[in-house]
Design goal:
7-stranded mixed β-sheet, alpha+beta, Metallo-beta-lactamase, Chain A, globular, 297 residues
């Protein structure tokens, strides 16, 4: 179910495309398992649940959706490997619960082009037929992506090619819906994207600010609350770890100054929280939480 709230006068909804089970070590990089498993227990295959949250903003310029999840263009083998259920279009169902149909979305802002963030850009025309035509999920939306990210996705290297799949953006080129942007963007009054390199070369986060209140959708600039508390904890996915650390430091400082509500995209326990400083250092004080392994609750 969506989490809905106001940032000043701007309605926002945290929606989800479900979860995957991802190797825990990949999320915590060089950090030994004996340390990170205090945060989240892995399963027998060393996997931890990773949510695929997205953000829907009802702005003055229309409906803005930040990221689109994994989508439905995945094989049974992939679902089994990553512990995904067999349902399709989880994000679409959550959007409808928030009162939004796919055709209502005006802007899709993509933090980056890894498949779990943009796979829902497009869909199978017939979800029961893996060979059916791939079409845009949001037929009336402009899809915004950074120029550098588009270049990196179009010409991946040995390390990155497993993250990028052209079926997630080529259909948007054909329909004229893909829009390449450079640098920080003012998406609408009170809504802006900011580039924070590290995870990828032009990773984007999204700020929503109005009437003295603020929200920050962190994407993979900081996918778990623990990564913000411990700046040296950097995922193995991040291409430039030192830039990731610097980006987190800057975001953490600004978020603490503004008492910003943080949205964590992948954290299976902390959905939202705020930065708090104290004698024991910086912590994230959770506001909305979930149970990582519901069968144990």
């Amino acid at each position: 179910m969506p989490y809905s709230f106001q940032v000043g006068s701007i309605p926002c909804h945290i929606v989800s495309d479900g979860q995957q089970l991802i190797d825990g070590g990949s999320f915590f990089g060089l950090v030994p398992r004996v340390l990170w498993e205090r945060i989240i227990r892995p399963d027998e295959k060393n996997r931890i649940p990773a949510q695929m949250r997205c953000l829907l903003v009802q702005s003055a310029a229309g409906l803005i959706l930040v990221d689109t999840g994994q989508g439905d263009k995945i094989t049974a083998e992939y679902r089994n490997r990553f512990g995904m259920d067999s349902s399709n279009r989880r994000l679409e169902a959550d959007l409808r619960r928030a009162g939004c149909r796919p055709e209502d979305v005006d802007i899709v802002l993509l933090t980056h082009l890894h498949a779990d963030h943009c796979g829902g850009n497009t869909r199978l025309r017939d979800p029961a037929d893996a060979e059916s035509e791939v079409v845009p999920t949001f037929p009336n939306a402009r899809y915004l992506i950074q120029r550098l990210e588009m270049a990196e996705a179009s010409f991946p290297n040995e390390r990155t090619r497993g993250h990028y799949f052209s079926e997630n953006w080529d259909p948007l080129r054909r329909t004229g819906q893909l829009e390449i942007v450079d640098g920080d963007q003012e998406l609408a009054a009170g809504v802006r994207s900011v580039t924070v390199p590290g995870h990828t070369g032009s990773m984007q986060v999204v700020w929503v600010e109005d009437a003295g209140e603020s929200l920050l959708f962190l994407g993979d600039a900081c996918s778990w609350a623990a990564h913000l508390e411990r700046l040296a904890w950097v995922p193995a996915f991040d291409l430039e770890p030192m830039r990731s650390i610097e980006g987190k430091r800057n975001l953490r400082r600004e978020a603490e100054e503004k008492d910003t509500l943080l949205v964590f995209q992948h954290d299976s326990q902390v959905v939202t929280g705020r930065v708090r400083g104290g004698e024991r250092g910086v912590v994230v004080e959770p506001e909305i939480t979930e149970v990582a392994w519901p069968d144990e609750s």
